[in-house]
From TrEMBL, chains A, B, C, D, E:
Its job: Mediates influx of magnesium ions.
Xref: SUPFAM superfamilies: CorA soluble domain-like (SSF143865), Magnesium transport protein CorA, transmembrane region (SSF144083)
CDD domains per record: TmCorA-like_1
Gene3D superfamilies for the chain: CorA soluble domain-like, Magnesium transport protein CorA, transmembrane region
CC per GO annotation: plasma membrane
GO molecular function, one term: magnesium ion transmembrane transporter activity
Compartments reported by the entry: Cell membrane; Membrane
Name of the protein this chain belongs to: Magnesium transport protein CorA
Keywords: Cell membrane, Ion transport, Magnesium, Membrane, Transmembrane, Transmembrane helix, Transport
Annotated gene: corA
């Protein structure tokens, strides 16, 4: 099982979750800024129709020129955003609007759908659970859907789409019989489905917290609740715009998407809604847990203070009595009584018993004698 | 009465409430995954018109072929989702879209309404109170409404619809005189009405909590409030989509639903609204109870700390005075006074009375002398 | 004045506020369930036109047959929902849809507006303050508005409409000159206006709480705040649907309502909005009061703990010094000094004064020397 | 500067803020109830066109008859709502709908816009800061805009419009060149602008609270926060409906308002939005301040309890040691050591230093040695 | 790095954030009030077409007359709002509506979009981080877009647009090839992009707080959280209206904006949405931090009180025993036993160990022996 309450190393790069790209104020619109750490750009092209399908690896942008004319469905997968020259050549070949190129290259952007010049730009995030620690990683994937072709721009050369490539190669399912719009759907569907395992991790972490919160209502639990709320907020920022995006995709008549494929996009829409549903539920649970933590701390304090009060209330008056008979006055008749000492002890015992009865009656002992609830 | 504050065994499988099905990322759309624990699939067919009605049990998918052609209303009730072959044959006979079959088989899905290819898919949940403990069970029921037929897919072979089958058999009410749309309504109505007894249980649990919260503001009460909030959240996830679903059903003109039946679907819509109303009320009450619990704990602490302060404030100064006259200085004139001891006691008494007066004036005794409120 | 902070008997039937009717799951739609405690059904008929008006008491359903044909405006007031036979006959005479009859008889329903078969069904609640205690009672009133007639179904034989009957009888105001739609308005207006005195009571209870909350931040105050929040929630459930209902009534063109009367329904709409406004204000005030209560308890605790700390911090060190000179070591030079005792007392006094100065400087005495604020 | 944290006399009539008028249930619609304390009614008439302008004071209703026919713009300013006869005559002269008269006379109503019978009724509130204390006063002003005339009904004979009258008299600005609609705008604009100084006072009170809340987190501060929240709630109830009102005025085509004047009403709309913006900001700040107060109290308690713990933890063990050597056992070897007393003192000193080191290490002294933050 | 937890001088003029302009109630609409501290007005004119571009500095209003007629794109940049005469002349030359001039001069206004008389008025704020301290400064910039010209009104002579002027001069990018609408976009884009660095500062301040909040949960942290919430509220007031503004700009067909430029305004819209997204995220984080602070304080108190209880519970009973044997009764048999003293010490030790075991078992030591979490 992946989720652990408090993993040994808490070396998560938390600042990543709220990363975003923004232009230098006053910069030229459409300017692209290459991240010096970005991977060099590679282009893989897959072309297919119901009869044949082939793949070309590491081609040059000008080799894609043919995609626009032939009647095959073309999928140009651009991996790595580090080579400005290649990216600009691709933009030229496919006649991308400068703003589209800007959104594709300057990552991360907010997920969005932009319909411009017979092309549909879809930007969304590929979310994956961290393999060896808690949290998730996020990476931007941009799709440009044209008449007969699909461009995908990926930050990393991840291998999420290998199953899909196999399905094209082996002619499994419907993919070879339908157009670039169905291919776009298959990619979007994969990306949406990626959210579920991440969510499941949070479900498990919340369940673990439910058990821990009473046994150990400390700073660590508090930190974990805060982290979960923080990360769910980041997840929500990434998924929330998709709701609108798919809603637009399914409602607006768009000539790039065929009637047959709409029902598939609607399926994506329902999945997005479901993810948001689960996310909101987790957020509400995490917020309830914060209340529970506060109550739990308050309860713990009650327990501690009650003990202090019981002990103090019994022994402070008794100590006072002992103090009286420790005074050195010359004339203190009781001191001379033969049974004085024992009468004094008896008095003390009575007071102690009276006090205990009072506390028992008010139910102040239940903290100590009730079995520890395993809630 | 079912609701109990804290039932002896707290062995509720809580994780069930937030269960959901999701595709393996990258899997083929329309693929169906048979749960190894699912029951084997049985098909029961009821066919009727105003004049006659008969029932066929445990038939084969191809026996349903006739439903599509004859002018009887057909209700094919498919129980158990464990036999992939039978399910695929049904899909073939009734020409179900692959995505519909996927939603029907891969349970649980979010409730939804899908209008596709002259068929209407309605997915919702059958909610039932747990018979011997708190909480509820949830099971998916899918309806596929066609021109002249209705398919129902159930996870379990529950017997919620036996009364309905009797009404068809005995020609009670209008059911035999109307089409498959009215039959669909009758099933939906039964499923919606199932929510009410579950809600009633929560109403009772909240009422019990209102009594317990002051008498016993402890971890157990806290746990119970959290559980109620958690389960109401799960219930809300199940009922919330229905609001939209029925709203769509009553507003959109759909050729599968006759004018006469619209008013019945509107009735379902109003019932859904009412359930949501009650649910929100309970959620707000549960949230108020959390505030009450916090206040109650705080009040309890005040009570305990006030006692500590009263006892300490009276006896600590007195003990100090006793301490003074317990010192062993050689020259302490008071010790030699004949009435010194009694003057000292008098002084102590005065201080104690002064303190008590001060506390009484500030009203600090009201915790102890006011009759325990039974709120 | 009606509102009292804590009335002597707290015997309010709280569970009533959240009562609602629901069908037995699987029951026949349109089935009516007679509550065994319901009053027997009586029908009073008032018929009028600008010239004449007469009233028939305790008539039979079939006597209403004429209402449908003559050109008088007819108001059939059905009181008591206990006689199934009579209710069914009425439904037959006026051709009520089975679902309408169900909604009318199976009380309480959520307020709603249903337009069906040339009849307009309006369901709402008659709210009245409890005469001898806090809270309110709620009762369903259903109106069926037809072409020339108005049916009202009441649970109880209350006498809210006697003034209205007098106005019809004495031809006061416009009522005799307008149709059944205006009569419906007059009844709705009376029912809406009934909410105001109930709201006023809550306003007074909240004002009383504002005074009590600091003087007496105890369980009773907490209980009262919770009760107010609870009852306002119940009130809101009853009034909220009316907003939509009247909005629909004023916007949709309906042939049963004449142009002249629309402005009156709009007036009802504005009153409903105003009630909701006040209700939300009270809800926010009650929620603020909960915060104030928490702060007030926290402040009280500060006050108590500060005293404890002052007393302990002064006397515990002094007692320690006294303890030192109470030790029985054989060689303790100070004990033999002649002024040792007085030097020791002087030391103690200095420490005490130093401590007091420290506390005074930090302002810890302000709790005790500031005049009790009467906020 | 007007705003003071806690003015000497807290004699604000708080109940005024949530005042509202409601009909006696069952009363005749359109009935008007004269408040016995209302001022007697006076009518002042101003008539003007671009060329001339004159004013008639204290005229009779029938003198207004001419307004309807001549081609001057007429502004009838009705001050005081105490004379039923005069008010009814005005209604007759200007043919006001009974419901309009009711809304105008039975104050205070919720702000609203009603378009009926070629007349536009606008009800809103004139808000003014209290001159000698905190809070504000509210008074209803009703405008009835007709073809060529404007009626204003004021509760009091306030002099808010004297500048406006001067502008008409002296032909300043555009007022004499435009119609009654522009006059209505000028009055509305004045009323809206009246909200700003009141808001500014709340801004100052909140700023004062920000300084006070830490220095003095007591009941008075709590009361002040609660009062501000309460009064902002009242303000919001008065301004919120205006947003909708002006939105309607600017969007709907109304023949009473000329094209030229629409831009001015849009300006009012923007001012209303701005007031709501500021109001919401203040409400959020007041709500944040409540959190700050709670934290501040909690911090104060921490400070107090930490001192108690430090003092107790050091001196209670020491007192115990002193107690041991104060016992009267016959055989206690240490007592007879020559340096026993000094060894004992040394032991005590070591323990005290150890404790102090422990507390210093945990940072528990920072409350006392950090300079008081002036936040 | 700019963000510091608590900068040395806290001399931020906080009241600036919630500044707003409002008219004196009753003042003439369209009147302009010159702020005595406003800078004198200077006009710089840039005119260009694809072929040529020139700049005139410090010209007179009448020199702009030609802009309206020639076919160059003209950008008149008016800096400083201190010279009423010049501003009125500009208004005359460009035929500005009085309300537009009022909005432009009487700063600060709420951001808005006003379409009037063939001109488009856009008001928004130029936000910049404070260079040497925390927080930001805000200044109003107004754009008036006409057929062939653009007016910009700036409070200050800031140099935000120098890069833009260079691009025009050097014919970089598309600016010289497109109209005044594209120029307006470039200015808006720069202003929107200015928000990002300010937001980034808040992100850093929140991150710093996340580290500080547990190590130092004091008044200063509380003050910093409150300040962040306060300033984010101010930022939100400034950015929120832009969302609507750009939405309107992109949806409404406006003849002043060419088809080609719409996609650019849509880009501004997406940036605004993104800023709001980040802002809301920060607001939620700041609000969560307040919860964390409360929990942290509560935890600290638990820690302190637990120590007090442990020490008191062990030593108070022991001191009592010592007190008993310090009494001076004549007959106390134990005192005379030879091993009495040692037996007594043994008894005390046993009690102490028992208590320690009890506390260890309840886990009360974990506060002190667990390594300080660096969360």
């Amino acid at each position: 099982m992946r989720a652990q309450p408090f993993p040994p190393e808490m070396e998560i790069q938390e600042e990543d979750y709220f990363d975003y790209y923004y232009d230098e104020p006053g910069s030229e619109p459409g300017s692209i800024i290459i991240d010096p750490e970005a991977l060099p750009t590679h282009i893989n092209l897959i072309e297919y129709n119901p009869i044949k399908a082939y793949k070309k690896s590491d081609i040059q942008p000008k080799d894609c020129q043919s995609c626009l004319n032939n009647d095959l469905v073309s999928w140009a997968d651009i991996q790595g955003l580090g080579s400005e020259k290649i990216l600009r050549e691709i933009a030229e070949v496919f006649r991308l609007h400068p703003l589209i190129l800007e959104d594709v290259v300057n990552v991360p952007q907010r997920p969005k759908l932009e319909d411009c010049q017979n092309q549909l730009l879809i930007i969304l995030h590929c979310i994956k659970p961290n393999s060896n620690e808690m949290g998730f990683t996020s990476e931007q994937i941009s799709l440009v859907l044209g008449k007969n072709y699909l461009l995908t721009f990926q930050e990393d050369a991840i291998d999420d789409f290998s199953k899909l490539r196999d399905r094209i190669k082996n002619n499994q399912g419907k993919v070879r019989n339908l157009g670039a719009d169905y291919l776009a759907y298959l990619i979007l569907d994969t990306l949406i489905d990626n959210y579920f395992p991440v969510l499941e991790d949070y479900g498990e972490r919340i369940e673990l917290l439910e058990d821990l919160i009473v046994a150990d209502p400390t700073q660590k639990t508090l930190k974990e609740i805060y982290n979960i709320r923080r990360e769910l907020l980041a997840l929500r920022r990434s998924i929330w715009p998709l709701r609108n995006l798919f809603n637009q995709l399914t409602r607006e008549e768009n000539e790039l998407i065929s009637k047959e494929v709409y029902i598939y996009f609607r399926d994506c829409y329902y999945h997005t809604i479901q993810i948001l549903d689960i996310l909101e539920t987790y957020r509400e649970l995490a917020s309830s847990l914060m209340d529970v933590l506060m109550s739990s701390m308050s309860n713990k304090m009650n327990e501690v203070v009650t003990l202090l009060t019981i002990i103090s209330s019994i022994f402070i008056p008794l100590t006072f009595i002992a103090g009286i008979y420790g005074m050195n006055f010359e004339f203190m008749p009781e001191l001379e009584w033969h049974w004085g000492y024992f009468l004094c002890l008896l008095l003390m015992l009575s007071i102690a018993l009276l006090m205990l009865f009072f506390f028992w009656q008010r139910g102040w002992f239940k903290f100590y004698f009730s079995k520890k609830t395993k809630w």
